[in-house]
Amino acid sequence: MQRREFIKLAAAVGVASALPLWSRSALAADRPALPIPNLLTTDSRSRISLTVQSGKSQFGPHNATTWGYNGNLLGPALQLQQGKPVTVDIHNQLAEDTTVHWHGLEIPGDVDGGPQGVIKPGATRTVTFTPTQQAATCWFHPHQHGKTGHQVAMGLAGLVLIEDPLIHSLLLPKQWGIDDVPVIIQDKRFTAEGQIDYQLDIMSAAVGWFGDTLLTNGAIYPQHAPPKGWLRLRLLNGCNARSLNLAASDNRPLYVIASDGGLLTEPVKVTELPMLMGERFEVLVDTSDGKPFDLVMLPVNQMGMAVAPFDKAHPVMRIQPLPIPASATLPDTLAKLPALPSLEGLTQRKFQLSMDPMLDMMGMQALMKKYGKQAMGGMDHGQMMGHGDMKMEGMDHGNMGHMNHGAQGFDFHNANRINGQAFDMNKPMFAASRGQFERWTISGEGDMMLHPFHIHGTQFRILAENGKPPAAHRSGWKDTVRVEGGVSEVLVKFDHEASKEHAYMAHCHLLEHEDTGMMLGFTV
């Protein structure tokens, strides 16, 4: 921060502290301050150290065991420079295996941290890579096969910020934790004893694990006080299974400047911003009027996710601008995006996402039994005809009770599939050619579930998303695409190698679908 800005900030804090007590509490609205992850850069040897550890975290009345990187919950934000190598030493102090996947980074398979990159309890894994892609907000999280959902639910997630000369040249908000603010949104559910209540069972294998408590950077409805002007929010949907739809409570516009893989060509003005699990967007918000507002989550039409309290708009965080002017601007243009190449003659691959009909039926039964018809996300029984290749028209709650006869021994751990196959770590499905564009078609036809499809080792361009052209703010570099009962097409290219021993993954980023088979490995 510039010295004069610091003096202004100190003066504002002094004014606030001189207010009567009731005014100060009204100003603070009794909200906790938004926790800001530490910004970690490499040391003099170009190294960063991460320790995966257990701790305790307070969530309202709950004092829960949580996991984090270099702390009790979540992790630091790693700031990396384009073209500069980094070595990360990852120490696993948990009592179980884990991996660290660099989600969104274009790096070789042997350092990507997929399910083969296992770190045993008490062991250390060291990876070295050089980010070559443009500036972007990426993230890191576990990718332990069959355990990803549980380990993320316990709190393991952190940000990766890649910087390049272009991002430095733009007059965007850059003061970390002041006007450049990370916003990691997750939901949790707690037991009566106040512990994180995670199960991978029939219901969560079908619709995903979801909670009733919303966390922002690990806090419940926190508040942030930026200088008034342009505020940059680096948004991450870090939920296991919940898609988001974000807006400002007073309907002020959000200007999207970047998606998963970095800057767009120009800002895109939206009033609502849907986000899939694992997606990141950077938005600028104008707070120069000095008026407080909330970032809110609007209800989404997704199975299981319209259950109270998320059947109504729900606050994510409070933004209370300070009476100090910020100095950043919203540029008219951002980055150049290369034109799409000719699609003629490209290698084409098709991926059919599917769920075992027994899992589908039993999952719906469990969901409706626990939460009622509202949990079906607006789908009625007529619409469900053909859902998961099984006729379900005309079924009522009475006869749904008979669906699981003979299914007690059903193995739901391999019930989600791609091209009819559940994930096999030892059998990559195909080999892509390095440096060659490919056209991938991902189909969710015959399945009404939401599948955010994520591909490792690349940032791609969306050609069609669920049968429609991509929205303007989804036309840049992406690593996740929406598939929901329709067909999506992406243009992919892999610039690094991935061997059979360290294959890249492509999978549904609804973590419980990934953990129960909706994933494939491939080599480059």
Descriptive labels:
524 residues, mainly beta, six-stranded mixed sheet, five-stranded mixed sheet, globular, oxidoreductase, Cu_oxidase_Cu_BS, TAT_signal
Short description:
Residues 1-28 form the signal peptide. The chain has 524 residues and is mainly beta. Helix content is 13%, strand content 33%.
Structure description:
By secondary structure, the protein is mostly beta strands. It is built from nine helices and 32 strands. Strands 11-10-14-19-16-17 form a six-stranded mixed sheet, with no helix packed on it. Strands 1-4-9-8-6 form a five-stranded mixed sheet. A five-stranded mixed sheet has the order 12-21-20-15-18, with no helix packed on it. A hairpin with a 2-residue loop joins strand 16 (254-259) and strand 17 (262-270). It is globular, with a radius of gyration of 23 Å. The two termini are 45 Å apart. Its EC number is 1.16.3.4. Pfam families: Cu-oxidase_2, Cu-oxidase_3. It is an enzyme of class 1 (oxidoreductase).
Q: Which helices and strands occur, and which strands form pairs?
A:
Layout: H1 3-18, H2 21-28, E1 39-40, E2 47-59, E3 62-69, E4 77-81, E5 86-92, E6 101-103, H3 109-112, E7 124-129, E8 136-141, H4 148-153, E9 158-163, H5 165-169, E10 180-188, H6 202-207, E11 213-216, E12 223-224, E13 227-228, E14 230-237, E15 244-248, E16 254-259, E17 262-270, E18 273-275, E19 280-286, E20 293-297, E21 314-319, E22 322-325, E23 347-355, H7 357-371, H8 397-400, E24 416-418, E25 430-431, E26 438-443, E27 451-455, E28 461-464, E29 480-483, E30 487-492, E31 504-508, H9 511-515, E32 519-523
Parallel strand pairs: 1-4, 2-5, 4-9, 10-14, 12-21, 13-22, 23-26, 25-32
Antiparallel strand pairs: 2-3, 5-7, 6-8, 8-9, 10-11, 14-19, 15-18, 15-20, 16-17, 16-19, 20-21, 23-24, 26-30, 27-29, 27-31, 28-30, 31-32
Protein name: Multicopper oxidase CueO
EC number: 1.16.3.4
Keywords: Metal-binding, Oxidoreductase, Signal
